[in-house]
Amino acid sequence: MWQPDRVTDPALIQLLDDLADRARNPYIAYLGSPDDRGDWGDNPPSDADLLIERRLLGAVTLAAIHIVDECIADIQTIGAAEMDPDGAPDPEIYADTFVWNYFPPRFRPSYDQQFFAKILVSAVKVSHDLANPKSDRPACIAEEIIVNAICKYAYTLMDEAGLDHDVSLEDLILDDTNFELLFSDDMDGVEDDPAMQRSLGMWLPPVEGWFTPFNTDRVVHPYAETDATTPRVHDLYHLLDSDELRAMSRKPDVVDAPAPITGFPPISEVVHLARQTTNADSETWVADDSDAEHSYRALVEIAQVAKSGWLTWEPHESADVVRSDAVVRFAPHRHYPVGNDQPWAEVAMTGGVIMHIPLSAIVSYRPDPAIYERWNSMYSSLEP
User: What is the pTM of this model?
Assistant: First the structure.
C-alpha cells in the first residue's frame, strides 16, 4: 500500500520504472494495470496502488538480473577453488554464493561445481520465463527455489526504494511452497521416502531430482534437466488419468463385482518374508495368497471393525523394508478399474491423501478406532 510520507530513493525508483515492462510472465504481468483484474467491487485499486505494483514488476526484473550476475560470479569463484580433502565444498569459499544463501543448507555436501553450473543455467532460464508472456510457472524444484529467491530479493529492493506493497508474488507465480520443507531439519530424510511424500500430497526428491520436470508440460533447460529417479510408490491412483476412470473407481458394481479376484501374490521378496513372519490373530489380518478368496473375505470382515487402523506394507519399489502406517480409512475392493485386474484398498492417510494400494504390497492390517478419533479431534480443533 502506498505511503506518501515514506522516504524514497528516486534513482532506484526510476530504475524500477524503466524495468517494469520487461516482466511479462502471464501470472504477474497484470500487476500495475487496471485491465484483466476481475470484479473489484467497492475496492478497486487506486492509481497510486497500481503504480506500486508496476514498480514491483521492475523489482522482479532487477532481482532476476542481479541473481544471474551473482551466479556468474559464483562460477568464477568456485572454478578456481579446490575441494576439501574429503571432497566437500570449502565453506569459507562458498559462504557468500547464491547457492549457499538460498538453497537448503542440509544438502550442501551435494552442491558441487556441476550443481552450481546447473543453477546458473536455471537462473538464466527462469529470468527468461519471467520476461516471456507465453511462459509457465517454474518447471522443477530448483527453479521454484530460484523464483522464491527472486521474489525475496524483489521485496528487499522495494524496501530499499522506500516503497510498501501488499502483493505476495509467491502466491501468483509458484504452484506451491512444498520445497520449503527441504529447508527444515525436522524433515530430514523425507527426500528418500517417496511414500511419505505421497501421503503428504507432495514431491520432494533428493538433490538430483530437483532438476526433473514436474510434468510433461513443463520444460527444464536441457543442460540442467535430469530424468526422474524416484522409486514409484505402490499406489495405483496415478492410473486414473481421467474423470471417467476416477468415477469408475467409486462404482461398487465395478470395483466390487463378484467375479473371482486374481489373487495378491507378494509384490516383492520383502513382502513375502514379512507375511511369513507376521502372526495373524483375531485382531490382525495377514495376507495369504494361498487361498486368496478366503483371505480377502477375512480382510473385508476385519475392516468393518473400524474405519481406521494400522497398515503394514512395502511403501515403494526397492524399499527393502516394510513399515506400519496409521490410516484413517481402509476399504478393500476386489477389482481395479484400469490396468491389471487386482484387489486393492482405498486408503486415507493421516495427511488426508487418498491412495489406492494393491493388496500385493500389503503385509497386514489391524483395525484401531482410536486413530480416527485422534485424527478427527485434531482436525476439528483447527476449525474456526
Answer: 0.73
Which ranges in the chain belong to alpha helices (H)?
Answer: 10-19, 47-79, 91-94, 98-102, 113-131, 141-160, 169-173, 194-200, 243-248, 252-255, 269-277, 292-303, 369-381
Residue 203 DSSP label: -
Return the higher-pLDDT residue of 379 and 249.
249
Q: With both helix axes pointing from N to C terminus, report the angle between 10-19 and 141-160 in degrees, rounded to the nearest 10.
A: 140
Number of residues that this document lists for the chain: 384
- The DSSP letter of residue 261 is P
Are the beta carbons of 234 and 358 closer than 8 angstroms? yes
Could you tell me the sign of the dihedral formed by the alpha carbons of 198, 202, 205, 210, in that order? positive
379: number of Cβ within 10 Å: 12
* Other residues' Cβ atoms within 10 Å of the Cβ of residue 45: 17
Report how far residue 276's alpha carbon sits from residue 99's, in angstroms, rounded to the nearest whole number. Answer: 49
d(CA 4, CA 234): 58
pLDDT digits (tens, 9 = 90+) for 88-138: 566 777 888 999 999 999 999 899 889 999 999 999 999 999 999 999 999
pLDDT > 90 fraction of the chain, expressed in percent and rounded: 65
Q: Which helix (H) or strand (E) holds 345?
A: strand 344-349
Half-sphere exposure of 313 (CA within 13 A, CB side): 29
Collapse the DSSP code of 46 into the 3-class scheme (helix H, G, I; strand E, B; otherwise coil) and give the result.
Answer: coil
Tens digits of residue pLDDT in 257-305: 999 999 999 999 999 999 999 988 889 999 999 999 999 999 999 999 9
Give the amino acid at 278.
T
Q: Angle at CA 354, nearest 5°, toward 348 and 359?
A: 75
How many alpha carbons fall within 13 Å on the CB side of residue 99? 30
Question: pLDDT confidence of 1, banded at 50, 70, 90?
Answer: very low
CA distance 384 to 370: 24
Rounded CA gap, 330 and 236, in Å?
A: 15
Distance CA 362, CA 285 (A): 10
Instruction: Give dist(CA 223, CA 140) in Å, integer.
Output: 13
